[in-house]
Amino acid sequence: MPNTPERPRRIRVQRDGPLLVEGPVEVVGEHGEVTVSDRFTVAICTCRRSRIFPWCDTSHRRRVKRPGHDGTAVAKCGKEEEEEQEET
């Protein structure tokens, strides 16, 4: 259903994933740069790993979780992940 003045824009929040926003959208970056998408639904990156930031490219899926010192999961990605794989 399209956005109307009577119906607010819908944003879906996903755990460990992007924000899904009903489009079209205009994103203003921290330095004032404007990026526009006219797609029906857009995925906004929240992990900042995307190569096409602010749009999500599913880079968050490569994140590996390992147990922390207190028993909770700690996220690892990128260079640390590669170094750990080389050690094993």
Describe the structure.
- By secondary structure, this protein is mainly beta.
- It contains one helix and seven strands.
- The protein has a three-stranded antiparallel β-sheet, with no helix packed on it.
- It is globular.
- The model is unreliable at 71-88 (pLDDT under 50).
Task: List its traits.
7 strands, single chain, 88 residues
On the 0-100 scale, what is the average pLDDT?
A: 76
- Regions with little confidence, pLDDT below 50 for 5+ residues: 71-88
Using only C-alpha atoms, the radius of gyration works out to: 17 Å
Placed side by side, the strands forming the largest sheet appear as 1-2-5
Number of strands: 7
- How many DSSP H or I helices? 1
A few lines on this structure:
This protein has 88 residues and is mainly β. Helix content is 11%, strand content 31%.
List the helices and strands and how they pair.
Blueprint: E1 11-13, E2 19-22, E3 25-28, E4 34-37, E5 41-44, E6 64-67, E7 73-76, H1 78-87
Antiparallel strand pairs: 1-2, 2-5, 3-4, 6-7
